[in-house]
Amino acid sequence: MKEYASRCRSENANLPSVAVVHVDANGNAHTVHVDDDETRVGIESMTDVKEDEEEQKMRPCPCLPAVSAEFPEYPEEGGVLAPFKFFLGWVLFILSFPFICLFTWTIPDCSEAHNRKYFLASFTMSIIWIAILSFGMVTLVGRSGCILSVDKFTMGLVVIAIGTSVPVGN
Fold it and tell me: Counting CB atoms within 10 angstroms of each CB, which of 4, 97, 101, 117 has the fewest?
């Protein structure tokens, strides 16, 4: 449920009151007037968070939509391995950034209310990307096996099976 804050004048007083507009899953808007100071502070902080989220998006190409990608930060804990983790984070960021851009630019974000009508296009593009990446992975493993003089079936069973069994950690 998304909430949008707007300020309006109270009918009986000169003090501004706050109106919260709740948008449900069907896109119907419901306005609720709030005069509570704690709620007003919460709504103001909510709008600040929304502005911060918009500031964190990058525009690698000005003619295309902004991309949500976070730069790697130096780990506070980790001791001797902290520089290695930081370097590895940058390597992974550089390798994954083109894919993040391509996915953002080709798959509609259906979590936003105005894009919900494109759910079928989003699903179709996701399936297409899975097919493209799977084809690339199988081709890469097959050619790597040819270079290493290992049978394609062995490479497929070992490399791809291991790749699907290893959990992805954050």
Answer: 117
Long-range Cβ contacts of 159-166 (<8 Å, 24+ apart): 163/137
The residue extents of the domains of the chain are 112-170
Find where tokens 């370097």 sit: 87
List, in sequence order, every residue forming a beta bridge with 16; answer none if it has no partner: 9
The distance from CA 113 to its chain's CA centroid, rounded to whole angstroms, is 16
The answer to whether residue 72 scores a pLDDT higher than 60 is yes
Query: What are the tens digits of pLDDT across the range 114-147?
Result: 888 999 999 999 999 999 988 888 888 888 888 9
H helix or E strand, kind and range, residue 12: none
67 touches 57 (CB < 8 A): yes
Tokens 């300020």, located at residue = 7
pTM, 2 dp: 0.57
Give dist(CA 126, CA 106) in Å, integer.
9
